[in-house]
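Training component of the fellowship. As part of building independent skills, the fellow (R.M.) carried out the full modelling exercise for a liganded target. The chosen ligand was D41. The inputs are recorded below so that the supervisory panel can assess the work.
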Amino acid sequence: MAKLSEKEARAEIDALSEKLHYHNYRYYTLDDPEIPDQEYDRMLRRLQDLEDGFPALRRDDSPTRRVGAPPLESFEEARHIQPMLSLDNAFNDEEVRDFDRRVRERLNWKKRLAYACEPKLDGVAVSLVYRDGVLERAATRGDGRTGENITANVRTIRAVPLRLRGDDYPPEVEVRGEIYMPREGFERLNREAREKGDKGFVNPRNAAAGSLRQLDSRITARRPLAIFAYGVGEVRDWTLPDRHSLVLERLKDWGLPVNPLVEVAEDLAGCLDYYDRVAGRRDSLAYDIDGVVYKVDDLGLQRRLGTVARAPRWALARKFPAEEARTTLLDVEFQVGRTGAVTPVARLEPVFVGGVTVSNATLHNRDEIDRLGVRIGDSVIVRRAGDVIPQIVRAVVSERPENTRAIEFPDHCPVCGSPVEQAGDEAVMRCSGGLVCAAQRKEALEHFASRRAMDIDGLGEKIVDQLVERELVHSPADLYHLSVETLAGLERMAEKSAQNLVDAIEDSKKTTLPRFLYALGIREVGEATARGLANHFGTLEKLRDATEEQLRAVADVGPVVAHFVREFFDSEDNLEVVSALLEAGVHWPAVQPPSEAEQPLRGQTWVLTGSLDAMSRAEAKDRLQQLGARVSGSVSASTDVVVAGPGAGTKLKKAESLDIEVWDEDKFTAFLSEKGLL
Ligand code: D41
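Fellow's submitted model of the complex:
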């Protein structure tokens, strides 16, 4: 380095900066990187070395600024040249219609009125001032007129260009956007925080805000932040295009990331449709959104509409129903599942959240109750996101009433009274009653009758509940002694359907060994394991008598599965049920181990990623295993094929980088149907 003249250093610094800016743009704005991360890092380190050798040559827009600057004492005030406005909200279609009507009336507009539609990022609104193309100042929104100067922090965000691309930009421009933390980065950050014994952030929005509030930008530099630009404020000596959607395209040309889901809707109907489509994709996005934003696309019309209070008349946020709400924990009840797991269920003061009224939430297990530190009577925050079961995310401890009481985990099963036990280091507590316990019996029967087990059509939850409650059925074998008369005496059961059910039960006697084993509901024995066991041992007797060691010789059977199988056949009660089933006439043809031809994927390793339309991932996995493949959760050099559905992420990227064969769903389903598995 010392040998370099200042002139040579300047030339190399310029060339490196240029390249680094370009690759940043490929990575963050176009989402289409050209070079591996290591190569980027190598160039960045070289630039850093050059700047250390020639400090005078370090520029304001140098990519090395992204590592952070020495800490500040406090943030300075930053006055926005044009105020940062806020958005009016709508919570249903009707309010969106009202908005469109108001806009049209004010403009006396009879023709079609186009709106730009954008996802509403749940992050932190910021203003970026670029002077002569160089990022000069970044500020939070604050009260809309004055925010905080967070330039040092924003400089560390690789998605924010330090210099605009090209030469066709205004000499001065305020860019508005939303800084956010992608979900994946948020999960990673929180995992790391927990490993260090810290609490982590409540959600990605708080994590983004907290990261921008750091006085030490070297901390911000390590946070996975990103940005989408959504508009401009002041623009000096430059004529913007006449439509908002075209302004966004300009921003993109200048190197600012713009959300790829932005669309122009021709009219109100298009806006409502946009909301539905974006809402449908919400869970599969890489970042949190809390709604969509509509903006009159024509900037001339925007100007005519103007603003009221601090919000433009030409824009509207259509928000998703709130996903979190506050309510009271009234009581905790304990439910018992098929495996005997005792699950605490929170009874809540009903509350409207995520678009539905919620009065129950799961508390998972005893560890979760301890972690939350929640007590009966507490004010709690409930979350219902997508279609998942509502959860309690925290107790509002600062407002704990006086008469709360601790949640007592029962020592005895609330259904059958047998002792509740904790197995090994598992978090779950289980009822030890087995099939003595009506709760476990119900679930065991439903499983026994299910389509992929004994396939007894018409034996659903409602019927099983009645059969167990009326003590008509104690074990699956009792099903085979039910008469039409008995069944016809149940609620919701006509003579005809009773007859159909008896027929279905009769038909189920003819089955296969894998189905039968699966139907027994042995813990950890799913369909694929049942098939593996059946193929390996050939007969029920051999399986019944196998030692744990012999069991472990079966592909995909480890110590845990081997233990559960042995435990199942060691129980006198279970052996009695099995004999009773055989005596009732349940039978199957001798097992033919699959031939080579039936297992064309033997020896291969497959990975499933993303979602599939035609079937669940579990079903896809099962079919691959039937064909002899090993199905792994992660991609490595030994992976043969990756099946990638929509929403595939890092696994797909990894497969591509390792040059592994990737199939889409169409190819996969065509293959399955060729093998007769669809
Ligand atoms: O994605 C967003 N969060 C977003 C926020 C967006 N896509 N567009 C926005 N547009 C505006 C106007 C129309 C006022 C320029 C906004 C916001 N404002 C906004 N963000 C925070 C306060 C206001």
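The panel noted the following from the submitted structure. The mean pLDDT is 92. The first helix runs from residue 6 to 29.
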